[in-house]
């Protein structure tokens, strides 16, 4: 009996109108508004948004492309024929994979919430992944970020830290624009959110026991990132901006590099802010709890040109660090208990959309 009813749920609305004239009409109507039938419809609607929602995501900041409606995202094709947008979905009607923070209401309310998550300014495409563990990991993180209200995602400490980092970056850029207006600095103005974004990634990587983080990025925004995240001495940076060289005085025939190509590397300690909700990443650093301190090694690579050639270099360095750890090489014994290397690539062509 359940198998027959589930088959009817997969029919299109036109096919179900034909079915209603058949002898199975009374059987299907008897199952129309059972919690089981509504739950199956809600589950298939969630799966449809996970698979096709990115097609209707509003990712064009200029509005030059029109969004084509996907028929697969019509909610009523997944529910019994008597269902309407005002049909109520009780707690027992929602799929087991639906987070508890999903609002309980009508089919229309449920659909609006799914659209806000999967068809907003960010498109998520992960339903095609073969590894079920990867799909579940992404699903959990997406729901965690977009289903709760923003105030419950980041604690006050995180938000104060993010505001401070963005204000520092803005003040730094304004200072350079005022004191050195003719200096070609590839400003990061308008993308100050990159500072707290990377800070959270570095902090969570350290929390999870990642030993090395390798970053490859373009020119734009590099100077503010060098100063705020990678500990590059601002006195040394201003020395170069003013046209001075770091090369020894007696060395001839050697040209100093430009500031937009600079690199930095350091071991950095992070304070673990109390998170709300608690971080899903287990803490492996000293202290082992919120309020403790963790550390990781950060490397910002040289960027030799505008051609994004740093991408394969960053991947290669990360792979080499991972291989060295597996083989127990020179770096194998450093900071026992910590392992893994994370590669972060920032592409210049994404700057406009990211803003």
Write up what this structure looks like.
The chain has about 350 residues and is of the alpha/beta class. Helix content is about 40%, strand content about 5%. It has 12 helices and 4 strands, in the order H-H-H-H-H-H-H-H-E-H-H-E-E-H-E-H. It has a 4-stranded mixed β-sheet with strand order 2-3-1-4, sandwiched between helices. Helix 4 packs parallel to helix 5 (about 105-120) and helix 7 packs across helix 8. It is elongated. It starts with a helix and ends with a helix.
Short précis:
This protein is of the alpha/beta class and 355 residues long.
What are the key terms here?
elongated, 40% helix, 355 residues, 12 helices, disordered N terminus, single chain, four-stranded mixed β-sheet, alpha/beta
Mean pLDDT over the full residue set: 76
Overall 3D geometry? elongated
Structural class: alpha/beta
Order of helices and strands: HHHHHHHHEHHEEHEH
Instruction: Give the end-to-end Cα distance, rounded to a whole number of Å.
Output: 53 Å
Low-confidence stretches: 1-30, 280-289, 330-336
- Looking at the chains present, what oligomeric state does this protein adopt? single chain
Rg measurement, Å: 26 Å
Query: What is the number of strand segments?
Result: 4
Helix content: 25-40%
Strand content: 5-15%
What is the strand arrangement across the widest sheet? 2-3-1-4
Largest beta-sheet characterization? 4 strands, mixed
What's the topology here?
Layout: H1 2-9, H2 13-19, H3 25-30, H4 35-52, H5 107-118, H6 132-146, H7 156-179, H8 194-207, E1 212-216, H9 222-228, H10 234-241, E2 264-271, E3 293-300, H11 310-327, E4 341-345, H12 351-354
Parallel strand pairs: 1-3, 1-4
Antiparallel strand pairs: 2-3
Helix pairs in contact: 4-5, 7-8
